[in-house]
Each structure stands twice: as C-alpha cells, then as structure tokens.
C-alpha cells in the first residue's frame, strides 16, 4: 500500500514529528502520517523521522505493547501508513469527565514495563485510544528512560488536567497545559498534586498486596 492508494478524509492529529490523517483504502480505514520539518525547541531527532518510527515500532512490538500495526512506509517520501484504531481518543474522553483511576493504574503498570525496558513512551493523552476497554498507544515514539519524563513525574499531569486539555483543544494555546512554550513541561497545580498522591498511594498499596499474597 502506498499513499497513492489512499483517499484522505481528514486530519486527526499533529505531533512533534508529523501530521496524521484518517484515510480510506481498499482494505478499510487507515492512518496516513506525513512527517514535517517543524523544529521542536525541547526535542531533537537523531535521524530520519520515518526510520525512527520504524525502529520504535519493532521495539514496542517485541515488548507486546498495544499499538497499531505498521502497514507500509516510504523513507524517500517521508510517510508511513498504519492501522486505524477505531476507539475513544483520551483527549476526547477528558472533555466529558475525569479519567477513571483504573486507567491510571494501567498506565503505571505500563510505566513499570517501560522502565524495565529502559525506555519512556510519550504519555501525552492524545497518543492513547481506548477501544473495547483496551488501552492502545497509537504513536510509536519512545526515548531512553529517565524519571523526569516518565508517567509518574510527567505524563500524569496531562491526564489529570481535564479542563486545561479541553481549553487547549478548543484554542490551540499551549499555556493551558504547559508551564511555557519551550519547556515541554506540564502545568502542575496543588489539586493535581493531591490527586496524583492519592492515585500513587492506592496503586502501590494494591501492588504490595499482590506481591505479598
């Protein structure tokens, strides 16, 4: 399958590396991701973005992470085509109600697996879709592990910031979810800190009970 086999339906997301479109093919709906050259102040790419995504896909596949299948790609034309996961985007879910604690627990278990593999995935909510009660990571990006950029210390604040995410999606203004444009660091409030502490405490209590039983 190549991009010439697709009919673009609509843009569905834009990230650090590229723009994703929902597209129709003879086999059904797919995601067409076209890489862009826009600089990111707080992030540097080590090589061609398509090659990075291919490498990341194979690593995450071996770790048996729920991700969309890679269908095809072109390094020369700077795009890839992947499976479309037809589910509820977490950023849309956040606009309706706060995220259930069970999903936080699932992400914390995922974080443990990633830490053991010595990598961080991008825990930003727009990179996750819930389908039939199964959480999918719909991006392939990952980076060397660091506590600073894991779910506990970074991603969780975006998942807790439902109002900020709603305002960000409505306006496109990063100030609603980040401390500033260039840092890539989330806004953190006292309310978020308290809620984070409750989630972590309950999660570790559950883990302790399981390990002692």
Q: Would you kindly provide a written description of the structure presented here, covering whatever features stand out?
A:
The structure is a single chain. The protein is α+β, with helices and mostly antiparallel strands and 213 residues long. It is built from six helices and ten strands. Helix 3 packs antiparallel against helix 4 and helix 4 crosses helix 6.
List keywords for this structure.
single chain; 213 residues; alpha+beta; five-stranded antiparallel β-sheet; three-stranded antiparallel β-sheet; 6 helices; 10 strands; globular
Brief rundown of the structure:
This protein has helices at residues 49-62, 90-94, 101-116, 151-160, 162-171, 190-212, and strands at residues 7-14, 18-25, 28-35, 70-74, 79-83, 88-89, 119-121, 128-131, 134-137, 142-144. With 213 residues, the chain is of the alpha+beta class.
What oligomeric state best describes the polypeptide chains here? Answer: single chain
Counting DSSP H or I runs of 4 or more residues, the number of helices is 6
N- and C-termini, Cα separation: 50 Å
Shape: globular
Tell me the structural class: alpha+beta
Beta-strand content estimate: 15-25%
Q: Please describe the biggest sheet, giving its number of strands, its sense, and whether it closes into a barrel.
A: 5 strands, antiparallel
Order of helices and strands: EEEHEEEHHEEEEHHH
How much helix, percentage-wise, in residues?
Answer: 25-40%
Order of strands, main sheet, comes to: 1-2-3-5-4
Radius of gyration: 18 Å
What integer is the average pLDDT? Answer: 90
DSSP, total strands: 10
Low-confidence stretches: none
């Amino acid at each position: 399958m190549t991009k010439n086999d697709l009919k673009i339906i609509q843009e569905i997301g834009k990230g650090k590396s590229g723009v994703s479109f929902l597209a129709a093919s003879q086999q059904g709906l797919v995601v067409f991701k076209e890489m862009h050259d826009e600089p990111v102040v707080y992030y540097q790419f080590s090589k061609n973005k398509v090659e990075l995504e291919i490498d990341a896909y194979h690593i995450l596949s071996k770790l048996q992470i729920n991700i969309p299948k890679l269908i095809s790609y072109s390094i020369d034309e700077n795009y890839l085509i992947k499976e479309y996961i037809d589910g509820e985007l977490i950023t849309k879910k956040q606009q309706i109600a706060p995220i259930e604690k069970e999903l936080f627990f699932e992400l914390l278990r995922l974080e443990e697996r990633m830490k053991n593999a010595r990598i961080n995935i991008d825990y930003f909510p727009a990179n996750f879709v819930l389908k039939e009660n199964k959480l999918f990571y719909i991006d392939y990006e990952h980076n060397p592990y660091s506590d600073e950029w894991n779910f506990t210390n970074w991603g969780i604040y975006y998942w807790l910031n439902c109002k900020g995410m709603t305002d960000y999606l409505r306006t496109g203004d990063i100030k609603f979810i980040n401390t500033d444009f260039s840092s890539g660091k989330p806004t953190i409030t006292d309310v978020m800190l308290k809620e984070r502490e409750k989630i972590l405490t309950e999660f570790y209590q559950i883990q302790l009970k399981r390990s002692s039983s």
